[in-house]
Amino acid sequence: MSDYKTGLEYALQQDQNDELKAYRSQFHIPKDKQGNPWIYMTGNSLGLQPKQTKAYVNQELEDWANLGVEGHLEAKNPWLHYHESLTESMAKVVGAKPIEVIVMNTLTANLHFMMVSFYKPTKTRYKILIESDAFPSDKYAVESQLRHHGFDDKEGLILWKPRKGEELLNYEDLESILDEQGNDIALIMIGGVNYYTGQFFDLKHITKLGHKHGCNVGFDCAHGAGNVALNLHDSGADFAVWCTYKYLNSGPGSLAGCFVHERHAHRKDLNRFTGWWSHNKQTRFNMRDDFDQLPGAEGWQLSNPPILSMAAIKGSLDMFNDVGIDKLIAKSKKLTGYFEFLLNQLGEDTIKIITPSNPKERGCQLSIQVKNADKTLHNKLTEVGIISDWREPDVIRCAPVPLYNSFEDVYRLVEKLKGITR
Ligand SMILES: Cc1ncc(COP(=O)(O)O)c(C=O)c1O
Ligand SMILES: Nc1ccccc1C(=O)C[C@H](N)C(=O)O
After folding, report:
1. For ligand 2, what atom is nearest to the CA of residue 252?
2. What is the mean pLDDT of residues 257-271?
3. Averaged over 301-314, what is the pLDDT?
4. ipTM exceeding the 0.85 mark
5. pTM over 0.80
6. Is the domain of 203 the same as that of 301?
7. Within-domain flag for 180
8. Is residue 176 in some structural domain?
9. In a domain, 223, yes or no
């Protein structure tokens, strides 16, 4: 039996008792034409802007205006080392060691760079296993890697599919695939939290299974970073990539994160694409001919990074550091549990939640199938100030984000949904 209760009074009381309630006022919450704040449920697509972001970005704009090229060394946060100031906080967010983490490039680009190193096909072991409902960019990326290495992108791709009539993936099925075809598979690449169903996979279990069969294992954690306890180091995964514009609130198209497990930190035998930013910092500006690779994830960088985007990430990570990922996840579980409780009151004739009901197997997002719904339902929700997203064929995704969503938001969302579906 859950302790949740129906009624607005209960929601308001929960907000009152919420240890993290002060954080909501530290975000810009967009408003409708009447000046009412939107009920913003799409932090799984683009996180809201922290109010302090502007000051972080302005600092760099001012230093650039006042110092020009001298800013590389003389800026308040010298640009030459700026990325290093993100590493420790980002490592905490994803449960990794600092040497394992780097902020660089964008998400799909990082996925490709990781595959340069960790997709090492041979004539007999060249297949890639992904989840059947992987985010399209991930699927396109792995297919293009297969083609790049001269393989057929249909034959070379193995899909981990849900059972007939089910939405979620089952580990027994993954085991069966690996028992039958493990020797053919060079790489397992799974979305750590599936973008469509919200299923949070057991990264450690998948990694163990993959390694047992001699496969490299990587995860796209776009929907996991800042949302769930990824514990990337303990998972043992070879690599992971994620973006910072969703739960990490760092702005549209902002830079991405990348994890390479510590055991690969000093390897020189891995193929990789390099640039001057992967070269030893001490001698980088000597413009030497011979390449001297940086250890750890930093050694996968190519270019000097865009500081303005990093400033937004720094502002956001400072907030994550302040709250602590554990407190954030504790609130998230409560808020999403409450959301699930209210949705279930609508009854099975109206809705079906496809996201796992076990809080350990999901983050804050719930993916909801509304009976006989089409995109007009989503449009109606938008008209009444609820920003959610629609994914074909029939799913509304809503993510109450613990840093800025309230119990009242969740209550009002479900009330509106009730009104529309009646
Ligand atoms: C799982 C996943 N992979 C890839 C992408 C695309 O990332 P990007 O456009 O930042 O490369 C997204 C979101 O856009 C995503 O959710
Ligand atoms: N970056 C974007 C730009 C434009 C529109 C959507 C996105 C998303 O991030 C979508 C998200 N990855 C999703 O899970 O649907």
Report:
1. 1
2. 97
3. 98
4. yes
5. yes
6. yes
7. yes
8. yes
9. yes
* Domains identified in the chain, total number: 2
Boundary residue ending a domain (263, 290, 321): 321
Same domain (yes/no): 187, 335: no
Of 296, 321, 346, the position where a domain reaches its end is 321
247 CB under 6 A from ligand 2? no
Phi-psi region of 207 (alpha: psi -120 to 50; beta: other; left: phi over 0): alpha
Decide if pLDDT at 258 tops 90. Answer: yes
Nearest alpha-carbon partner for 377 in 397, 401, 357? 397
Rounded distance from Cα 216 to ligand 1 centre (Å):
21
By most ligand atoms within 8 Å of CB, the mutation choice from 42, 45, 244, 250 for ligand 2 is 45
Full residue range of the structural domain in which residue 168 is found = 82-321
Q: Are residues 250 and 374 in the same domain?
A: no
The ligand minimizing its distance to the Cα of 193 is 1
Percent of the chain with pLDDT over 90: 90
Q: Clarify whether residues 284 and 411 are in a common domain.
A: no
Distance from the alpha carbon of residue 256 to the mean position of ligand 1, in angstroms: 10
User: Residue 2 domain-assigned?
Assistant: no
What's the rounded mean pLDDT across residues 229-239? 98
Pocket of ligand 1 (CB under 6 A): 106-108, 135, 137-138, 191, 195, 220, 222-223, 243
Domain CATH code at residue 174: 3.40.640.10
Q: How far is CA 417 from CA 129, 345, 385, 392, 412, in A?
A: 38, 12, 11, 19, 9
Between CA 2 and CA 209 the distance in angstroms is 35
Per-residue pLDDT tens over the stretch 122-134: 999 999 999 999 9
